[in-house]
Design brief:
Blueprint (H helix, E strand, L loop, with lengths): L1 E4 L4 E5 L4 E5 L3 E2 L3 H17 L4 E5 L5 E2 L2 H15 L6 E5 L4 H16 L6 E5 L2 H9 L7
Parallel strand pairs: 3-5, 4-6, 5-7, 7-8
Antiparallel strand pairs: 1-2, 2-3
Helix pairs in contact: 1-2
Organism: Adhaeribacter arboris
Protein name: STAS/SEC14 domain-containing protein
Length: about 140
């Protein structure tokens, strides 16, 4: 079921598996205001549907935003997700090696600050991410 379709994000919720799938959009500086609105809709949907599993597919997305602008967006998203009942978040890795390196450094920094209240996983394919999300949970809050 499509929860929120727009030009930037399309939230697809599968009730039988409790997985919300979000194809990460291509981002430029011009898209930042729309991204903030879309991320608010994402958080609202997670809260409203009490989603426990989130799949972010960034495999084909491009991000052309300076790090000093993009980093607060990502950190803000993670902080907002900690205020939900999310238990697992999987991310399909982007094909852009430089961007992935940047995202891994963000991930390491957030982990060192104990920002995650849910399990996270990184995967090469959407199928592998879905499989991991569907497994029994072992994480204790």
């Amino acid at each position: 079921m499509i929860l929120y379709p727009d030009a930037l994000l399309a939230l697809e919720y599968e009730m039988s598996t409790d997985i919300l799938t979000v194809p990460w959009p291509n981002l430029t500086g011009a898209a930042l205001p729309e991204l903030e609105v879309a991320l608010t809709k994402l958080i609202d949907a997670i809260k409203h549907y009490d989603v426990k599993r989130l799949l972010i597919d960034s495999q084909n997305s491009r991000v052309d935003i300076p790090q000093e602008i993009y980093k607060p967006v990502i950190f803000g998203l993670i902080q907002a997700l900690t205020k939900t009942r999310l238990t697992k978040m999987a991310r399909v890795l982007p094909e852009d090696v430089l961007r992935e390196r940047q995202l891994r450094s963000y991930n390491a920094e957030m982990a060192s600050k104990n920002m995650f209240t849910f399990q996270t996983g990184e995967f090469a394919t959407r199928a592998a991410a879905r499989h991991w999300l569907s497994e029994a949970e072992e994480f204790i809050r």
